[in-house]
Amino acid sequence: MVKLPLVASAASLAASASVNSTCNVDYIKGFLPSNTTVFYADHYDYNSTFAFPQDLNYGSLTSPHPTTSFTVPKAACYIQANISLPGDTQHSVGIILPDEWNGRFMTVGNGEFAGSIGWAAIIDASWYGFATVSSDLGHEGNNGSFGYHNEAALQNFGWRALHDAVVNTKSVISGYYGQNSSYNYYRGCSAGGKQGFKEVEMFPEDFDGVIAGAPAWWFKRLQLWVVVNTLWNEDTTASSYLDSATLEAVAAEVIAQCDPQDGVVDGILQNPKGCVFRPQTLLCGASINNATCLNGDQIALIDKMHSDWKTENNTFVFPGWMLGTEASWSTTGPDSDFVTYIQYMLQIGSDWTTADWNDDLIALSDSLNPGNATADDFDISPFYNRGGKLIHYHGLADPSIPTGSSYYLYDQISASLVPQGIDLDDFYKFYLIPGMQHCEMTSQDAPWYISGDGQNTALTGTVHGVPGFEDAKHDVVLAMMAWVENGTAPTDIVATRWNNDMPADGVAIQRPLCPYPSQATYVGTGNTSLPENWNCTQV
Fold first, then answer.
1. Are 440 and 338 members of one domain?
2. Of 31-35, 55-59, 300-304, which gets the smallest average pLDDT?
3. Final residue before a domain boundary, out of 181, 201, 232
4. Average of pLDDT values for 175-200?
5. Given a cut of 70, is residue 431 above it in pLDDT?
6. Which residues pair with 95 in a beta bridge?
7. Residues 330 and 447 in one domain
8. Alpha-carbon distance 15 to 101, whole Å?
9. Cα separation of 301 and 280, whole Å?
10. Cis ω on the peptide bond leading into residue 517 (within 30° of 0)?
11. What CA–CA distance (Å, rounded) separates 476 from 83?
12. What is the Cα–Cα distance from 307 to 328, expressed in whole angstroms?
């Protein structure tokens, strides 16, 4: 079992010896473009409290886990600056420079429409010893209104701001520590996963290792899917309408039918894609007649939700929901934030409402490709050729971004690279996480924690890394470092779930995650909650 030390090297310790005295605005500004505004550069001791200025970080208050103050895990210099971008635009970056620097750099990604610095993510990265950065991508707030009649802002969001943050933070690192970072990494999930793939495609020299979870890579199609599928179940008077109680019953029936098909009855769907599910068992009739039995129209809608989205002429548009996501399907129509993609990023305007939906939006979205945000340049051979490594993961119970989009992405990259004689396994590992929802957590009591981006914030207490398992077998960050720096390619990565999602309460279950297309199968004897009783096999 490979275990990498979370301590600074002798060289980086020497470089860090005098950093306290240089953690100030004037010094930091010298390593950034001349028109940069550095708001603050302040040193924080271990276990002190960092509270970001809310007037500079409005967008952070709209994140999934809004937190305004944090316990500092490692003494470091905390910086926030505005850096100019083309078109009279700018973006705000948060940078953390640890005193005990590990000699490496990690950039983190964003969520949904971004619009905030990911302070929680870079603070977690600093715990490992990384110098680290996050950008708000040039706007504040979590919707698409920033992009209306503003092409520069769209390009900032789509790719430009993140790359600019990488370039400028590398300059700050070099000046502050007196040496360049020895290795450069990226970690992001959701929109952050998309950003990771976009960096791999456009700027293969930026990173040595990229960890991309649940990537929203097909941005121009995904943003339409998250609206249209909720329209199908919006009308509460429709005979097909599925209310929350009915969806819970459908979800329970999915588990009842699919769980035994993977060989172990434990409430976890190891391979939902391989399950044959018949919702007809819930049809109202003589043997079943209750508030949650189904009529034929409801059966048809369930099948539609689980199937690929296609146009009226049977053209594929986007993958449908995976079995095991039903309890999280919308019952109230589209989220207003996602509607703003159509209104403002597609340049239609605020007069557009969901009553105006038609499939012509697909061609419009494809042609505009707002901000060039979609990461669909599948020939990532330049990243492979320069020695880059990529770990891609996705929860099999994701109710926000269909897991099928990651299968599709992997297959498209494979179709591009295999004819070039490239073995994907040499540099690209794809892990499916049974039972995990969007980037984190589970509805199936499944193990899901691998220290992916943002996962620590979903646990109770202040958590960094994988408590009790700080090694490359359990921590995806350390697995990536071992691969990039030692040439030790990851095989299975063990996912963990703690009792009550609280590490202090002890481990509830661990199970290996296997690089696709293999999957974990039970050996037939022993406790199914222990990872040693599972093997990775081709199925």
1. no
2. 55-59
3. 181
4. 99
5. yes
6. 79, 133
7. no
8. 8
9. 12
10. yes
11. 31
12. 16
Q: Is 298 helix (H, G, I), strand (E, B) or coil?
A: helix
**97 shares its domain with 164:** yes
Q: Are residues 479 and 414 part of one domain?
A: yes
**Mean pLDDT, range 283-300, rounded to an integer:** 89
Among candidate residues 354, 371, 388, the one where a domain is terminated: 371
**Per the confidence metrics, is the pTM higher than 0.90?**
yes
Query: Exposure of 284 by Cβ count < 10 A (0-12 exposed, 13-18 middle, 19+ buried)?
Result: middle
Residues paired with residue 51 on neighbouring β-strands, in sequence order: 69
Q: Are residues 385 and 332 in the same domain?
A: no
CB atoms under 10 Å from CB of 358, counted, come to 6
Instruction: Work out the widest C-alpha separation in the chain, in whole angstroms.
Output: 80
What pLDDT sits at residue 2? Answer: 38
Alpha helices per DSSP H over 107-212: 119-127, 151-155, 161-177, 191-202
| pLDDT confidence band for 42 (50 / 70 / 90) | very high
Q: Are residues 471 and 350 in the same domain?
A: no
Residue 506 identity: G
Please give the pLDDT value at position 27: 98
Please compute, for residue 136, the number of CA atoms within 13 A of its CA located in the half-sphere on the CB side. 30
Question: Does the pLDDT value for residue 59 go beyond 80?
Answer: no
Cα–Cα distance list, 385 to 97, 183, 418 (Å): 30, 17, 14
- Please indicate, yes or no, whether residues 420 and 439 belong to a single structural domain of this protein: yes
Same domain, 357 and 485: no
Bridge partners, 186 (sequence order): 107, 210
Give the structural domain span for 293: 222-371
| C-alpha pair distances (Å), 300 with each of 75, 88, 289, 326, 463 | 57, 51, 19, 14, 44
Which pair of structure tokens corresponds to residue 314? 């049977």
Q: Is the dihedral of CA 62, 68, 71, 75 positive or negative?
A: positive
- Please write the tens of the pLDDT for every residue from 472-520: 999 999 999 999 999 999 999 999 999 999 999 999 999 999 999 999 9
In order of 349, 497, 533, the CA distances from 187 in angstroms are 34, 21, 30
| 515 and 490 Cβ atoms separated by less than 8 Å | yes
Question: Within 10 Å of residue 51's Cβ, how many Cβ atoms?
Answer: 11
Q: The tokens 């605020």 sit on which residue? A: 350
Tokens 């391979």 found at: 271
Residue 184: pLDDT band with limits 50, 70, 90? very high
Domain count within the chain: 3
Q: Which helix (H) or strand (E) holds 201?
A: helix 191-202
- Whether the Cβ atoms of residue 143 and residue 162 lie closer than 8 Å to each other: no
- Residues constituting the chain: 539
